[in-house]
Predict the structure.
Amino acid sequence: MEAFINMVLLTMMAASVVALVRMRNLFAVVILFSVYSFLMASVLVVLDAPDVAMTEAAVGSGVSTVLFLAALYLTKTEEAQPRHSPLLPMFVAVVVGAALVYGTYDMPPFGAADTPVNTHVGAQYPGRTPAEIDIPNVVSAVLASYRGFDTLGEVLVVFTAAIGVLLLLRRNKRRPGDASEEAGPDRAGMED
Amino acid sequence: MRLDVVLRVVVKLLLPFILVFGFFVQFHGEISPGGGFQAGVIVGAGLILYAIMFGLDLAMRVVSVRAVEKLVCLGVLLYMGTGFAGMLLGGNFLDYNVLSYDPIKGQHLGIILIELGVLFTVAGTMVAIFYAFAGREK
């Protein structure tokens, strides 16, 4: 049953990607992106990863769709005709895709017990969590406590993304007279 | 315009549930799937939905740009502050055992604090980026 659901979802994802590539109307492309993300979230639910599915549904098909639409508002909704032949990009995509698929043949079977992921510290966490942290959700315990430093890194990545986007896009409500004042402290800082 | 009314009413009805679900994912994260990151994107998406339906000006009166930007920084400070608090109390960086008289209680406190930090930063970032995008004129 699970394999059947996965097959249906993955087929629909493939269909939406083919439609995406053929589409010229960018509004439809954005909506198809959203559909693709939502299907991805469903696949993640089937794979027993509801945490990731929640994030994918909210960010992938929610927030990023809104951001795409906001960007679309600033440009044309119709894709321009490509100037080059699509053969070379397609060749590169096919070669990279084939290499990745070839790579999967060396991977252990899905959920195999003798992989490094499942034999190293990963195997200890479910046993240690009740005694050391005492919360039922081992995933939370691993992310917040055992791997707290990694999660700090993730938060810093999100923080850096926010700073970067704000520096590039933020509306500066600066009055004309403020320009010289703005330059003042900077110069003083350089002399120090 | 008539369609607009339907959307507005539906969004008004859904918003409280979206926000409560976000906080549920946050504070129930020790038992059910979820945590600061998931809660942050859900709360952020709820606020963005409000901004889309009722306009940027009204949304900015609910949560101003300055408040959102401070929230992003506050989250990181809370997270790192919890880490340094562990150091000051004699443990390692991000060592929650020393935060309370009982190591297990300390772990719970530490996890709640850093998940709150994650919630603040992620929700703030989502809304801040949306404000920056939506505030641009053609």
